[in-house]
Amino acid sequence: MSEKQIRLAVIVASTREGRFSETVSRWFVDQARQYDVQVDLIDLADLDLPSRHRAEPTPEINELTSRTGAADAFAVITCEYNHGYPASLKFAIDSVLEEWKAKPVGFVSYGGLAGGLRAVEQLRLVFAELQAVTIRETVSFHMAHSQFDEKGQPHQTEAVSTAAKSFMDQLLWWANALRTAKAAVPYVG
């Protein structure tokens, strides 16, 4: 990894059996790897996080905290359950505090008619409280199951590739700007 390379943590929110997030996350990681970034795929289904917050963090929480702390930017891949985001994501977000500060967060969402955008709007409020910077650009898959072929590729390749490019350009701009600013003046918050 070069000194200038951005460390991008891609967080996969859904932990449900039969989830569609694997299709969306594989596609997005392929898009992100077209940039000069180091990708760390944090799949919450693989972390075996505890079911409640404990006074002393578990090894899994320590791992999540370490990986979050090492990241320069985040891409959160989230579905929408009952007009909100998954409980697994809320637990993960609340398990880490200082490591979110002054870092950019972008959202790749999927779902039914709303494409997960209601979950994204709620997440913007949560990350604002954690002093993270959410970017405007999103990638959203409405009626997601019908948007991908049997090989996991989107039917509207040009449109979603354009959205992913806008997303990555904006996320990386913020990641570089915030990293440079924090190097010059430590963030106080």
Strand and helix map with partners:
Blueprint: E1 6-12, H1 21-32, E2 37-43, H2 44-47, H3 59-70, E3 73-79, H4 87-95, E4 104-111, H5 117-129, E5 133-142, H6 157-184
Parallel strand pairs: 1-2, 1-3, 3-4, 4-5
Characterize this entry briefly.
The chain has helices at about 20-30, 45, 60-70, 85-95, 115-130, 155-185, and strands at about 5-10, 35-45, 75-80, 105-110, 135-140.
Give the tally of β-strands. 5
In terms of per-residue confidence, which ranges show pLDDT below 50 for 5 or more consecutive residues?
none
Principal-axis shape equals globular
**Number of folding domains?**
1
The arrangement of helices and strands along the chain is EHEHHEHEHEH
End-to-end distance: 29 Å
CATH class: Alpha Beta
The major β-sheet equals: 5 strands, parallel
Query: What is the CATH homologous superfamily assignment?
Result: Flavodoxin domain
Task: Summarize the structure in words.
The radius of gyration is 16 Å and the shape is globular. With 189 residues, the protein is an alpha/beta fold. Helices cover 41% and strands 21% of the residues. The chain has one domain: Rossmann fold (3-Layer(aba) Sandwich). The protein starts with 5 loop residues before the first strand and ends in a 5-residue tail after the last helix. It has a 5-stranded parallel sheet, with helices on both faces. Helix 5 links the parallel strand 4 and strand 5.
